[in-house]
Every structure is written in structure tokens, then in C-alpha cells.
């Protein structure tokens, strides 16, 4: 710094000869100006650094939105939704579970496996100039999990994004069609279907293309991740019904034919517009059962023990076509049924038993309009008949209470995401975000799942 640059100081030097006073004054002023200059330089550097941090944070928030969207779609699909119930470190253990694979071919399933393995091994996935990986996924409760994804920007800054995931199990209670047949096992080589066919079969015994679906544009055969409903214990059913509604139809029963409901009989319960008539039939042997239903009446037959070659009919006055939902036959325990009819409109459920159907008219196929759910469909044994027709007619919304509360599918909600970043520089030293950047809001999102993987 030169004195000649300051006219005022130069004039002082001319007027005063006391240099001892002027020298400290000049040095102090120079020091003050140096401090001011250094401060301005530091402020400029900090502003530049702050701007860089802001850019990194906004960049990371942008990529966090993309990560959030990717996981939203990932977990709303099957089989990805199956892995919501397991911690990240256990995903690889469950890749080949029946509920996840659903008997898919290697060609069809391998892309899904690769994606699950990529996330479970914490491999980095590239989105534009950034990368992310799943650093943690923790199953917290039966309907809640927390996912943490780590994002890396192009220059090495990192951010953790947490996605809090909730889901609930909603019962199928809608206008979706009940499958015409739902089984674990059974020879279907000559059986025809005017409806969907569901298989819960971990052995993957069926070649779906070989199932004779008569209208493939509307119906399909498929493996499903559902389990059969657990029916009430027969003793609990007995506790709710008086002895008048509990009938043993073995050889000691005098009548060959029985008609239900009986004349002047009162319903066992009422739900909305429907009158329910419930019965327990035990050890049914070579009888004829006629069920006569009215428009708003539903007859439920709880079967205890086996049914040996018994004729069964379902009539409803002058109407030729009785609604299938008006007759429900439930096989408790390991019941084995052998029903004889040409046509029956009903829902038959024997989750742990066997259902065999014989035609009343020789060499003619028997037709079930409604649905049959059973562990084993007997088409080859003493009560077997390969020539069967199944016609789909039921919807889940008109199923009785006992079955509505037992059949369910997962409905997933991603309720919110947290984008509160912990931004780190390349040397991994924490850099707090500037105060001028507002925190990201909690974004409520309700997502209805696509059922295209469950219903065609």
C-alpha cells in the first residue's frame, strides 16, 4: 500500500513533521482495510459454497422423487408385494416360495428375481446422473415396514430417503367373479370351464394352457397366492344351532328323501334382506336331498363326516334357474363328498376334503353352476367323472358373511415419504442445509392396487 495513493495522508506529511504520530495511524488503517477485504472474500466463498449445497440438496430431492415412484410401483405388483412381510436380509430366502413364484417359468420369473436380488444385495441403480441402493428394509409390524434408500449424486454427495409403507388386508367383497373351480389337486383332462380356474398347488402340477377354458377372452386358469378359508369348527357351529337343525342321515334315518327347509320352518338368522336356514348333516349315506329356496333365502348345509353317493337337487319354485348363492355346502374337517346330479346351482366348499361328482344320467356330463372349492376334485375314483362342466356365476359381494371375512387380498398404501436429507460432501463431512431451504412436506398418498395380476 503506497501513501501516494492517499492525497489526504500526503498533505498531512507536508504539514506535520512529527512522523511518529502518522506512522501508527497509517498502519492501523491499513490493517482495518485488510480485514474488511478478507471478510468480503470469505463471504463470497461461503455464498458460493452455500449455492453449491443448495444445488446438491435440490438435486437429491429430485432424484428422491424418482426413487419413491420406483418403489411405489415395485411394491404394488405381485410378487414384489409378497416381500413386504420380510426384512431385507431375508428376501433371498423367500424368492422361491410358492406365494412369490406362483409356478412361473424360469424365463418369466428370472427378471423378477434379478430385481429382488439387486435390491437385497444393495447394488447401486442408476437414475440419470445419480445412483441409489436399498440400504435397509425393516418389517416392523404385520402391516408396516420402513424402507431406507441411499442416494448418491454425480459429485459424490449422499442422501438417505425413508419411505414408510403401510398396508392392510381387505376382503374380496366386490363385483369380481368367484372362480368356477378352485382346487389343490384333481384330473381336469376332460373337464370344461365357462369361468376362471384357480390353483393353490405348490407342486405346480398343471399346465395352464391345457385347461379347457371355453371363452379365453373372458376367463383364465392361473395359480393364486391365496389359501382356502378356514371354516368354523363343527362344534362351534353346533353350539349356535338347536337340535332341530342337526340331522344324522345315516342308515338309521328312516326317510330316503329329505327336503329342506321344512314347511313352516323359521330361519336361523336374518342378515339384511336374506333369511338364512342352516343345518348340520352328519354321515349322509345314499339319500336324496332336495333344497327348495325362495328368492331371498339362503340354505347352508354344514357337512360332518362323509357323503356317500347322495342325490342332491336345488329347486326354487317355478324358476328354472336357481341362484347359486342360495345354496352353500360346507365340508368341515376331512369330509369326502360323492354327489349325484345332472345340474346343480350351488357353492361347494371343502378346503381339507374331497369332492366327487357323478352324473345322474349315464354318459352325460354333470354341470355345476356356481363354484367348487376343494383340496381334491375326484374325477377318477369310485365317484369320479371326468366329464364335468363348471359354469361361473357368483360374485364376491354376494358371498355370505362366513366366507367374506376369510378370503382376502393385500391392499397397499404408501402413506408418506420423508425427504429430510443428511447431505454429506465427498470427504463425508456433514454439511447442514441452509435455512432458506424449507423442509420437504409430508405427502399423503393413497394408492389403489392394480388387480390386473389377479383378475383378467
What does this structure look like?
The chain has 456 residues and is α/β, with parallel strands linked by helices. It has a domain of 224 residues. The chain has six helices and 21 strands. The chain has a 16-stranded mixed beta sheet that branches. The N and C termini lie far apart (86 Å). The C terminus is likely disordered.
Helix-strand pattern: HHHHEEEEEEEEEHEEEEEEEEEEEHE
Beta-strand percentage range? 25-35%
Rg of Cα set? 37 Å
Look at the helices and sheets and give the structural class.
alpha/beta
Helix proportion: 10-25%
The count of strands amounts to 21
Low-confidence stretches: 418-456
Number of helical elements:
6
Biggest pleated-sheet summary: 16 strands, mixed
Task: Tell me the overall shape.
Answer: elongated
Distance between the termini: 86 Å
Mean pLDDT: 78
Topology, pairings included?
Elements: H1 7-15, H2 19-75, H3 98-101, H4 106-120, E1 125-127, E2 130-141, E3 144-152, E4 158-171, E5 181-186, E6 192-194, E7 197-199, E8 212-213, E9 221-223, H5 234-240, E10 246-248, E11 257-260, E12 269-271, E13 274-285, E14 288-292, E15 297-315, E16 327-331, E17 336-340, E18 343-358, E19 366-378, E20 388-392, H6 401-404, E21 408-418
Parallel strand pairs: 5-7, 5-19, 6-8, 6-20, 7-9, 10-13, 11-14, 13-15, 14-15, 15-16, 15-17, 16-18, 17-18, 18-19, 19-20
Antiparallel strand pairs: 1-2, 2-3, 3-4, 4-21, 12-13
Give the structure's gist in a few sentences:
The chain has 456 residues and is of the alpha/beta class. The protein is 21% helix and 34% strand. The chain is built from six helices and 21 strands.
Amino acid at each position: 500500500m503506497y501513501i501516494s495513493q492517499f492525497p489526504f495522508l500526503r498533505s498531512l506529511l507536508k504539514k506535520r513533521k512529527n512522523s511518529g504520530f502518522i506512522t501508527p495511524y497509517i498502519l492501523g488503517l491499513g490493517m482495518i482495510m485488510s480485514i474488511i477485504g478478507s471478510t468480503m472474500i470469505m463471504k463470497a466463498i461461503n455464498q458460493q459454497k452455500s449455492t453449491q449445497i443448495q444445488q446438491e440438496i435440490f438435486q437429491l430431492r429430485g432424484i428422491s422423487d424418482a426413487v419413491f415412484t420406483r418403489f411405489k410401483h415395485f411394491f404394488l405388483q405381485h410378487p414384489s408385494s409378497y416381500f413386504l412381510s420380510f426384512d431385507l436380509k431375508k428376501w433371498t430366502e423367500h424368492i422361491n416360495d410358492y406365494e412369490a413364484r406362483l409356478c412361473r417359468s424360469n424365463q418369466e420369473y428370472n427378471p423378477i428375481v434379478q430385481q429382488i436380488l439387486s435390491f437385497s444385495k444393495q447394488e447401486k441403480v442408476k437414475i440419470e446422473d445419480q445412483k441409489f441402493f436399498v440400504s435397509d428394509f425393516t418389517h416392523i409390524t404385520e402391516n408396516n415396514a420402513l424402507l431406507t434408500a441411499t442416494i448418491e449424486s454425480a459429485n459424490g454427495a449422499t442422501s438417505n430417503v425413508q419411505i414408510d409403507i403401510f398396508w392392510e388386508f381387505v376382503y374380496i367383497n366386490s363385483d369380481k367373479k368367484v372362480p368356477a373351480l378352485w382346487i389343490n389337486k384333481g384330473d381336469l383332462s376332460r373337464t370344461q370351464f365357462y369361468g376362471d380356474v384357480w390353483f393353490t398347488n405348490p407342486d405346480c402340477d398343471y399346465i395352464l394352457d391345457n385347461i379347457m377354458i371355453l371363452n379365453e377372452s373372458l376367463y383364465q386358469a392361473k395359480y393364486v397366492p391365496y389359501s382356502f378359508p378356514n371354516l368354523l369348527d363343527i362344534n362351534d357351529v353346533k353350539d349356535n344351532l338347536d337340535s332341530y337343525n342337526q340331522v344324522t342321515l345315516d342308515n338309521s334315518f328312516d326317510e330316503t328323501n329329505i327336503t329342506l327347509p321344512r314347511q313352516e320352518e323359521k330361519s336361523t338368522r336374518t342378515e339384511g334382506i336374506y333369511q338364512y336356514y342352516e343345518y348340520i348333516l352328519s354321515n349322509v349315506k345314499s339319500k336324496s336331498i332336495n333344497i327348495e329356496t325362495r328368492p331371498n333365502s339362503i340354505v347352508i348345509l354344514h357337512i360332518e363326516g362323509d357323503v356317500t353317493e347322495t342325490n342332491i337337487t336345488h329347486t326354487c319354485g317355478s324358476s328354472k334357474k336357481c341362484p347359486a348363492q342360495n345354496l352353500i355346502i360346507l365340508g368341515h374337517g376331512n369330509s369326502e363328498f360323492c354327489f349325484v346330479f345332472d345340474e346343480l346351482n350351488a357353492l361347494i366348499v371343502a378346503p381339507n376334503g374331497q369332492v366327487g361328482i357323478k352324473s345322474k344320467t349315464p354318459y352325460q356330463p354333470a354341470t355345476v353352476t356356481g363354484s367348487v372349492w376343494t383340496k381334491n376334485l375326484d374325477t377318477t375314483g369310485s365317484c369320479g367323472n371326468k366329464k364335468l362342466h363348471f359354469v361361473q356365476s357368483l360374485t364376491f359381494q354376494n358371498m355370505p358373511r362366513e366366507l367374506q371375512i376369510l378370503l382376502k387380498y393385500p391392499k397397499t398404501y404408501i402413506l408418506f415419504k420423508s425427504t429430510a436429507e443428511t447431505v454429506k460432501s465427498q470427504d463425508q463431512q456433514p454439511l447442514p442445509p441452509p435455512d432458506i431451504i424449507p423442509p420437504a412436506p409430508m405427502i399423503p398418498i393413497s394408492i389403489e392396487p392394480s388387480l390386473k395380476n389377479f383378475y383378467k
